[in-house]
Specification:
With 295 residues, the protein is an alpha+beta fold. It is 16% helix and 36% strand. The strands form 4 sheets. Strands 11, 12, 13, 14, 15, 16 and 19 form a 7-stranded antiparallel sheet that branches. The relative contact order is 0.16. The mean pLDDT is 94.
Length: 295
């Protein structure tokens, strides 16, 4: 179940408001001692987050399906995608839904019942935690999220069933601007920098990849080197952008890689202001990446 983006915070009777996390969405399957952690696009993450898998394996329920997000918290208790890239062995699992438990399908139960089930099944765990609920009032929850520096909030209808698609029963409001963009090329390095200067970023509109700007910050020498290794086999002669940038020293690549980018805003002409590279996302398909709404 995916949340629909809305522009403004709101308050509605019968809704709850949760912290929006900055991590990897995972479904946790348990059948006896067998546990699998699967991403949105069916990548098996069990080995990568073995500590989470072990914690799920230790739960009493014989069969279980949990929905949540693998996150790494900073010193202030805020989830950071960059930390998750660097310290996957420190990840915890923030659980926000329980779809099956001991052979019972809960998807047609209201969210209030599913939440009660997940709180009972995971009890008190260090690695498995119920998603953080904020103030009961949606406007106060948004203010709290801004004050704490969270990525945003997710509002959920307590009476809603679990729907395997994007839904208006889960709505998200951003506090901090952060999205995925497709890498369509890179520029030559300048000065002391090695490998490349900046990444050319794009997003899809009506099946066409549109250039939205470049990002040249957020890298260290290790990430520059690793990215360059990934980019070199993808080099192509012609741009994949329908509106490629007119600049010298540009190398275009096949639009196969997706980057997580934070930014100040996206302008009226769909260009990023003050973008910062956070990491690669292999749980998102390039064709899923669309130009974000202008705020």
């Amino acid at each position: 179940m995916l949340a629909t983006l809305v522009r403004e915070p709101f308050d509605r009777k019968g809704w709850v408001y949760e912290e929006k996390y900055d991590g990897y969405r995972l479904l946790a399957y348990k059948e006896g001692n067998k546990v699998s952690l699967m991403s949105r696009n069916d990548i098996d993450r069990t080995a990568r987050y073995s500590q989470i898998a072990d914690a799920v394996r230790g739960l009493k329920a014989s069969t279980l399906l949990l929905d949540g997000e693998a996150i790494v918290l900073d010193r202030k208790g805020i989830s950071r995608f960059q930390l998750l890239q660097q310290k996957s062995d420190e990840a915890i699992y923030s659980v926000f839904d329980c779809l099956y438990c001991d052979g019972k399908d809960l998807r047609r139960e209201p969210l209030s019942a599913r939440r009660s089930a997940l709180e009972k099944v995971i009890a008190s765990q260090r690695i498995l935690r119920p998603s953080h609920r904020l103030a009961a009032n949606g406007l106060q929850a948004y203010k709290m999220a801004r004050k704490k520096g969270y990525e945003g909030i997710v509002a959920k209808d307590l009476e809603s069933h679990y729907v395997e698609s994007r839904s208006a029963f889960w709505l998200k409001v951003k506090v901090h601007q952060e999205d995925e963009f497709v890498i369509g090329g890179f520029t030559e390095p300048a000065g002391a920098r090695k490998y490349f200067g900046a990444l050319l970023l794009g997003a899809y509109v009506d099946g066409n990849l549109h250039y939205v700007g470049k990002v040249g910050t957020g890298f260290n020498e290790e990430t520059l080197s690793e990215l360059y290794k990934n980019l070199r086999p993808l080099v192509r002669a012609k741009p994949s952008f329908v509106n490629p940038p007119r600049a010298k020293g540009v190398t275009f690549v096949e639009p196969k890689l997706v980057a997580q980018i934070s930014y100040q805003e996206i302008t009226e002409d769909s260009k990023l202001r003050q973008p910062v590279y956070l990491g690669l996302r292999d749980d998102k398909r390039p064709r899923e990446v669309s130009v974000p709404e202008v705020y």
